Amino acid sequence: MHTDNPGLLAPSEATLLMFATDMDPETRKLVHVTYGAQGNGKRRIISIGTDAAHTDAVVAADRPWADSPGLKGVTSPLMTLPVPGRDLVDGGSEHYLFWHDEGTKQLKYRTVRTVHGAPYTITPVTDDRAVSAHWEALKDVVWPVTSMPVPGRQGVDGRNESYLFHYDTEGRLWYSTISIGRHPDHSDHTDRADHADHTDVLVTEARPVADWWQASLKGIGQLMEIHPVPGRQNAGGASEFYVFHQDGRPGTARKLTYRRIAVATDAEHADTLVTEDRPVADWWSTSLKGVA
Question: Which pTM value belongs to this model?
Answer without folding.
Answer: 0.88
